[in-house]
Prior knowledge:
The complex is a heterodimer of chains A (161) and B (356). Chain A has 161 residues and is mainly β. Chain A has one helix spanning 6-20; strands at residues 65-67, 81-83, 92-98, 104-110, 114-116, 137-144, 150-154, 157-159. In chain A, strands 1, 3, 4, 6, 7 and 8 form a six-stranded mixed beta sheet that branches. A two-stranded antiparallel sheet of chain A has the order 2-5. In chain A, strand 6 (137-144) and strand 7 form a beta hairpin. In chain B, strands 1, 2, 3, 4, 5, 6, 7, 8, 9 and 10 form a ten-stranded antiparallel beta sheet that branches. In chain B, a hairpin with a 4-residue loop joins strand 4 (91-105) and strand 5 (110-125). In chain B, helix 7 (299-322) packs antiparallel against helix 8 and helix 8 packs antiparallel against helix 9. In chain B, 48% of the residues are buried. The model of chain B is unreliable at 12-32 (pLDDT under 50). The A-B interface holds A 33-34, 58-59, 61-62, 64, 94, 96, 98-99, 101-110, 118-120, 124-125, 127-132, 134, 140, 142, 148-150 and B 150, 152-153, 186, 188, 225, 228-229, 232-233, 235-240, 249-250, 252, 254, 275, 277, 280-281, 283-285, 287-288, 290, 292-295, 326-327, 330-331, 333-334, 337-340, 342, 352, 356.
Amino acid sequence: MKHIHPLFILLVTGLFLIACGVSSGGNANPPSIAPTTQGNQPVDTPAVAQSELSVEPFLAAPGLTTVKLLTDIEAVGGKPLFQWEAIPAADRYQLIVFDEAGDPYWAWEGTQAQIYMGGTQSQPPADSLGPSIGSGYTWAVVAYGSDGRLLAASEVRKISP
Amino acid sequence: MKSTRSKMWARHWLVSLVLIAVFASTGFAEKSPPGFRDGEWVANFSMYTTSSTDVMKMKTTYSGQMGLISAGGQVSGEWILTGTANYTGDITGIAVFDGAGKVSGTSTEPLISTSKFVAEMALNVNGMETQQTVDMGSGGNMPLTLISSTCNQVIADIQAPTNDAYKQAGMTGYASGSFVATRVDDIFESNSVDYQYQVSELLDQAEALKQKAFEQGGIDFATLNNLVSKAENLQTAIKKNTECGEMGDKQFLTVITKTVTDLAYFALSNPELFTTGELNRLVMAALSVGAMGSGAANPQVSADLLAKFSQEFTDRLGDAESNKNCMEATQIKLASLALNNAALKQQAEQVMTAVC
C-alpha cells in the first residue's frame, strides 16, 4: 500500500475545512435585504445554529422589535412550514417570500405564527398547484398591532428546498 | 302604464342582449394569448350587473358552469347559468334567469353561443302585479376573452365585453365578474366532486366582496384574507402540471386572482379611499394569488400593478415628509421592500431619516 505523508493528510483536511467555511469567529455571507445572484451563490455549509448567523433586519425603523424566525434554512422541501415566535401584542403578520433574484414571489397575511408555503395550515401535497420554494429564495415577516401600527420585523432569511 | 311596461320590456330585452353579450369581446389582443391545453376542462363563472333607467334600477347576480374538451387547438362544450335580479324604483320585483349554450372555436379564442335564455319575472308596475315568462331567444358566436393560463388553469375576462356592450346599447349599466377553468385530469381524484362546488361558492363570495368594495368605497380585508385562504386551499386539490411548457414551474393562479386584480386596480384608481397600510395589504393579497410578482401567470398585468403601486407609494412620501409622519414613511419603506423597488426604498429611508 502506498504510504501517504501525514502532512499531506493535514493539508487536505485543512483545505476541506476552509472550503466548508467553518471559522472560529466570523459568519459566511450574511443575508441582505435584497439578495442578488452576483457572486452570492449558496455555499454548502455544515448545519450552523441559527443564532450564529449575523442578521440584518428586513425593516429597520424606530421602535420595531425583532421577529425570531424558526424555520430551517435548507432541506425544507418545496412547500415548507414557515414558523416564527409570536409577538405578544401582534394582531396579524405579513410574510413575504422573495425568489433567487430578490423579486417578490409570494406573500401571506394572517393571525397565526406559522403558515405553509402556499397559504395552508396543513401540509399541502408536494405535487399540488401553488407557489413552491426554489433554491436561493429568502423570506421575512413583519408584525402589526391591532391599530395597524408596525410592531416588529424579522431578518431576511435564506431558504432552500 | 302600458307605455311604462313597454319601455320596461324593451329595456329588459336590451339587458338580455347585453347578457348574451357577456361572452362577447371587443377584441383587445394579448402578446402571448393564453389558452386551454388539450384535455377536459370544467369552469365556473360569477357575474354581477347593475343597470338603470328612469323608472327602475336592476341588480342581477349570475352563477354558471361550463364544461369543454380541448383537442388539437379546438374546443367544444356547453355552459349553463342561473341568475336572480332585483328591481327597485317605480318598478319593483324579482326575476329569475335560466340560460344555456355551447362553446366552440379555438383553444385560445373560444366562441360562445346561447341556445336558451329565459326570464321568469314577478314585477309590480305602478301597483299592478304581473308575472311573465320571457324567452330572450338565442345568440350567435361571440369570443370569450382569456386573460391568463397555466397548463391546468385559465381565467377570463367576462366583464369588459359586457360593459362595452352596455355602452354600445346606450344603457347605463355596469358588469363585474370572474371566470376560472380547471383541467379535470389535474384535479386530485378524491377532491373532484367537491371541487366545483367550492369554486362556485368562492367565486360568488369574491364577487360579492368586490361589489361591496365598489359600492362602499373600501375593502373588507378580513373577508378578503379569508377568501384568499380558501383559494389557496383549493390549489391543493389540483396537481401541478408544467407539461404544456407554456409557463415555468414558478407561475401560479388561483380562483380569485382576477378578483384581487380588480380590487387592486380599483384602489389604485381611487387611492384617496385607502390608507397606505391598506394599500400594503393589497400588495400582499396580489402577491398571494399570483396577480403580481415573479409567480404571476400574466407578467404584463403584474408589471403594470407593480408600476402603479410604486408610483402611488412614491406620491405619498411627500405627504409623509410634510406631516412628519414616521409610521407612514415606514409603511412606504415596507412597500418598497415588498415591491423590491430600490429607488423607492432609498427615498423612503431619506424621509425616515428626516422625520423619525
